[in-house]
From TrEMBL:
GO terms for molecular function: nucleotide binding. This is Gfo/Idh/MocA family oxidoreductase. Residues 6-114 form the Gfo/Idh/MocA-like oxidoreductase N-terminal domain. It holds the Pfam family GFO_IDH_MocA. It comes from the Bacteria. InterPro entries: Gfo/Idh/MocA-like_OxRdtase_N, Gfo/Idh/MocA_oxidrdct_glycsds, NAD(P)-bd_dom_sf. It comes from Trinickia symbiotica.
Amino acid sequence: MTKKLTVGLVGIGKIARDQHLPAIAADPGLELTACASRHAEVQGVRNYPTIEALLAAERDLDAVSLSAPPQVRFAQARAALAAGKHVMLEKPPGASLHEIEVLREMARKAGLTMFASWHSRHAPAVDTAREWLAQRAVRSVDVRWKEDVRKWHPGQKWIWEPGGLGVFDPGINALSIVTRILPHEIVLQTATLFVPSNTHTPIAANLDFVDLNGATVRAEFDWRHGPREQWEIEVQTSDGTLLIEQGGKRLSIAGEVVDVGPEREYPSLYAHWRELIERGEEDVDVRPLRHVADAFLLGARREIEAFVD
Ligand code: NAP
């Protein structure tokens, strides 16, 4: 049997506990040996307060997975690559586009694998939708990605700070699916960002794109929605409507539900990263973040009432 890849996980918060820890534990090719977090510890592994302390002590570690908020991703990834570790970045891969290019260059020069992960691309509906759409003419796309911020980000401050993306933190998941399934590139035309008077980032956004074949792509992201979330992508084509619901768990085509199997986004992400490392490859697609950056460049900003958590 080949040796397991030893992994360190950095930033033990909501997504680390909900998804990363169980996914690593279930992967037969990975072994979690260390974690770094300022306030949290994980049982059964060595724990450090910072990534620097982890890297100084864990010389033999193969790889590091980063699940802290995006504002600290660059410094952490840079430290991990400088120490010779393969790296997996939670989404979004960074707080700016350029920092990702710098990291990608570092990884390439050092012969290390960098994986900028997009968990929603590993949702079960995505590959089937992509294959079906590849053979069709897309006429229009309607993205509705709406949820209650108080339910999904209780008490989180970083989402409202510069680099935290606001409603684009979930919205970028929709964009990661759209950029994966549509046969043509999309280009942002106009955007409106609704920004509470006491936050730096938007609580809602409307985006209008065109694709290179002339189809219109409308996206509505809203954090003031509830109690049930709406994570849907509806694609009108020459052969009827393709509808992705529940963030990619459910797919229907021309009114018929398609069996896409169970949800296993994070196990699939980790299997993909392991395979990339084994093959000596990278996977860094910044297009979802580039569309968000374009929304901040092009978007009309509307100040709205203060957000009360
Ligand atoms: P979180 O719980 O607020 O943060 C994760 C952990 O990162 C925190 O508990 C904190 O642990 C550490 N951290 C926070 N600020 C830090 C700083 N300035 N320096 C160093 N460490 C810091 O956030 P999350 O919801 O897990 O999200 C983290 C990332 O996962 C984001 O990029 C998000 O988009 C992505 N994600 C989240 C979800 C979700 O449902 N929440 C789903 C998919 C992806 P310590 O205080 O112990 O250091």
